[in-house]
Design a protein that fits this description.
alpha/beta; binds pyridoxal-5'-phosphate; three-stranded antiparallel beta sheet; Aspartate Aminotransferase, domain 2; Aspartate Aminotransferase, domain 1
């Protein structure tokens, strides 16, 4: 969608779809929200959805589907092997990415398991712009290590760099020189980044990485899970791509990677995932693991209905109107918060709006999980469920010491085409109130701490009675309102 101009109103994003099916929401009273987050061990992953008003935990598997996707699901061809549905999906992947071979998986991390088992050996290095939780876990599980070589600016909260997700080419050169190309299992490009605020990577940077890798015989693997937003940003922010269609940009990206994998819980607004490549050699290496872990080669753990939905969803992703929706709503929310002086990652990225907890609750030390504490506090005062993306999402080192995260973010995801602008305004209003009362927010400490991916099931408690005081202040200010 090109910018829609408003003459009398302040310009705001315009939905290029209409809502035909709705789902009822509940907004439970503040005391019940406190009870719910306490029962969830102050971990927003453990909340029950019926207690949540706006679910901004993630965009994974919760983007709104289109009428065309639902219609396609009804004509799916069910069979264990060789279904027509698989052929339709495979053809769509070939058409869009121009890759000859497609391996289906049940979701994005399943691709990471297979890629890591095939290419990562003990001592291997995997350079990448930035890690994602599951991608790092699979690489380390196979004895490899992750090197983050994103540009320094990527970790600054506020910047006007349009491509904070770019790889620093000099850092990549230095890594190759220091360790030798043989040690590098592959270079992983995440387009766009998840943990550093949905920041995109430019087409030019991908081309530069690809050239350097190819000169050194290193494989380039693209994680395209968040590609839809990244395509929008390339079209909007990269001068050389202004006149290219989304389809042309997609193909140019694909031409500069050897292997592409994605989570269809994000890309294509469905559920599932897959890996594609034009190399028969790589295809054959990965193929046997698909049947071992995922299922037969023509479904890989997905239902035929989901495969139909992905095929249509990928086609719809080539529509600029469709992919604009997420980034434009995010930009609206980020701008509103930024104008109100609230610390938020800029420029606006994809995936969601990211509050900077290090600054929002600067009195909470990293050892008390400021982003996790902010997530619990925001739920109490609004019923909005966000996701901690900071130290809690890290893992302790071999000696059991905390690994403090570079950034302490509270991510408020905007699943595509799900929320209305008034709901976004409600969230902004409650965040502003919370910011004015931020001194009331205290830290958290673990009660139960799992060793691996602790942010999923860990249980915490507040370090003091701060949550009770927060509720008292809320009731004093909001009265009978929920
Ligand atoms: C979500 C995500 C994954 C993992 O995908 P799942 O389908 O959740 O397993 C991998 N990479 C990125 C960038 C993601 O956002």
């Amino acid at each position: 969608m090109s910018e829609i101009k408003f003459i009398y109103e302040k310009s705001s994003p315009l939905e290029m779809h209409k809502v035909r099916i709705v789902q009822k929401l509940n907004l439970i009273p503040v005391e019940e929200r406190l009870k719910a987050i306490t029962e969830a061990g102050n971990n927003t992953f453990l909340l029950k959805n019926r207690d949540v008003f706006m679910d901004m935990l993630t965009d994974s598997g919760v983007n709104a589907m289109s009428d065309q996707q639902l219609a396609a699901m009804m004509v799916a061809d069910d069979s264990y092997a060789g279904s027509e549905t698989f052929t339709r999906l495979e053809d769509k992947i070939k058409e869009i990415f121009g890759k000859k071979y497609f391996l289906p998986t049940h979701q994005g991390r399943a691709c990471e398991n297979i890629l890591s088992q095939v290419y990562v050996k003990p001592g291997s290095i995997v350079p990448m712009n930035y890690h994602f939780t599951t991608s790092k876990a699979h690489i380390t599980l196979n004895g490899g290590s992750v090197e983050e070589i994103v540009s320094d600016e990527a970790l600054e909260i506020n910047s006007d760099n349009p491509f904070k997700g770019n790889i620093d080419i000099d850092k990549l050169k230095a890594l190759i020189e220091a360790h030798g190309a043989e040690k590098i299992a592959f270079v992983r490009l995440e387009a766009g980044t998840n943990l550093i605020g949905g920041q995109p990577i430019s087409l030019q940077n991908m081309k530069d990485v690809y050239k350097l890798c190819h000169d050194n015989g290193i494989l380039v693997v693209l994680d395209a899970s968040l590609l839809a937003d990244n395509l929008y940003f390339i079209k909007q922010r990269e001068e050389a791509c202004r006149d290219m269609t989304i389809r042309e940009i997609t193909r140019a990206i694909a031409d500069h990677s050897d292997i592409i994998y994605f989570s269809a819980r994000k890309l294509g607004c469905a559920r599932g995932g897959g890996i594609c490549t034009s190399s028969e050699e790589h295809y054959l290496k990965m193929r046997e693991l698909i049947t071992l872990y995922e299922g037969f080669l023509t479904y890989g753990g997905m239902s035929v209905r989901e495969m139909e939905a992905i095929a249509v969803g990928l086609e719809e992703t080539m529509d600029f109107d469709m992919i604009s929706q997420g980034p434009q709503f995010i930009a609206y929310m980020v701008d509103k918060l930024y104008e109100a002086g609230i610390p938020v990652v800029t420029p606006p990225g994809g995936l969601g709006c990211h509050l900077d907890a290090k600054s929002f609750v600067s009195h909470i030390p990293q050892s008390q999980y400021p982003a996790g504490a902010l997530a619990a506090a925001l739920f109490i005062v609004s019923g909005v469920r966000g996701m901690e993306r900071g130290t809690l999402s890290e893992q302790r080192d071999e000696n059991g010491n905390e690994v403090y995260s570079n950034m302490e973010l509270l991510r408020l995801a905007l699943p595509r085409r799900v929320f209305t602008l008034s709901q976004v305004n409600y969230a902004v209003d409650r965040i502003r109130w919370l910011y004015d009362n931020r001194h009331l927010v205290g830290g958290l400490t673990f009660v139960e701490e799992p060793k691996v991916l602790r942010f999923f099931f860990g249980r915490l408690k507040p370090v003091s009675d701060w949550q009770i005081k927060l509720v008292e202040k809320f009731k004093a200010d909001f009265g009978d309102s929920l």
